[in-house]
Amino acid sequence: MDYRLSLIFTLPEIILTVSSLILLLVAAFGGVKSARLVTILSVVALFGASAYALEFLTNPSFEFGGDAFYGLYRMDGFGSFAKLLIYFAAIISLMVAPRFFKDSGAYRPEYPVLILFATIGMGLMVSAVDLMTLYIGLELNSLSAYVLASFIRNDVRSSEAGLKYFVLGALASGMLLFGMSLVYGFAGSTSFSVISDTLTGDLSTGPLIGVVLVLAGLAFKISAVPFHMWTPDVYEGAPTPVTAFFASAPKVAAIALTVRVIIDAFGSQTSTWQQIIVFVALASIVLGAVAAIGQQNIKRLLAYSSINNVGFLLIGLAAGTEQGVSAMLFYLVIYLAMTLGSFICVMEMRDADGKPLESLSSLAGLSQTRPGLAAAFAVFMFSLAGIPPLFGFWGKFLVFDAAVAAGMLPLAVIGIAASVIGAFYYIKVVKIIYFDDPAGEIVRTGHKTENSLIALMAIAVSPLGYLAIPLLAPVTATAAQALF
Q1: Where are the annotated coiled coils located (predicted)?
Q2: How many degrees, rounded to 5, is the angle at CA 167 between CA 163 and CA 169?
Q3: What does residue 407 show for φ and ψ, rounded to 5 degrees?
């Protein structure tokens, strides 16, 4: 094995690891006063890691990728593209966090360091081609996430969210680990390629249970039905910047990991996993739509929206084709813009005392008091609903088109029909904003950073987003091709 090449292939993780350890020392010696400096340096480190991920994705010299550390880690276009999305989401989450925590006095330099540790874990997840690397990356991300969820120590809801996430996350990790041990026992290796070559033909009961348990553990991480139960409570209880982070970066990492495990490790068992993915996709779409209708908390509503969108993403995976994976990656780009924009809008919901507001009723008549924020909310809601000509429609169209091309017309038809249910609660939010009598609760003026990010995300999911198709389409196709 060439250690020099291995170190080059893992440069994004090395940069973030060294940076996080140094910044941890800065936080320890500098105390609370160093929070702003640590945040800025964390963003710089993420930009540095992004530069190398972009180099691996676009440089023809790295077109075919390569394995590092005896086949435990793979640098390829798929992993590099997923990392760019993860780093982008982490940067946005760090940019909006200081001002949110400033009013409560809860912001500390440990926050950006935890984000970096979580991001390192996610980088390992999307590049893992071995069950051992997969589990290490997953746990590094999860352990950081548990602390982030309960970051405001004097807030009961935040502490409760962290505890629920920890308990249910431990259960999911146990299921995943047990499934991995069964797969290893019958395949004789933890390498994805060896597992794919060994588990061929009709599976016996043992390895079949192993595959199901692995998929169940991964379904928890992407908050897919029926392993979604933690999502609404954690999203509601965690601080809003943390919720924005959970709904974006870890979601991308978990979905990319699920795709890699299914295609690389269980690619020869299409008939086994395809039925599971189809069921989980449809269940997530329907439950995410129906359960959101009665929600009165905007963060819980967006939690069910996240579950709903995971269902649409899994339709692309159910196709099991290069086109399906490419459609998923394109959808993830649009999903990030819609989700981050929506949660930054939620951060702008504050009363005269600066206290965060989360109820749908507080949005009543927002169009008259904050017309710019109201317009952005409407753009994000309509885009999440997949209403043309907004860019969110194109993401749904791509995954449905991939399903039809793979001969799964009934799945596409049911998915399209179920998406109509989801449109109801998105339009309900717009109705409250534009047609209800003003509540006058949201009065705080936005900050330049938040306003600029909201405007940027709104433009990205507006019809102007279609101009990015010639740029994004070949990149997502190249990234998907790396798996096949």
Answers
A1: none
A2: 110
A3: 80, 25
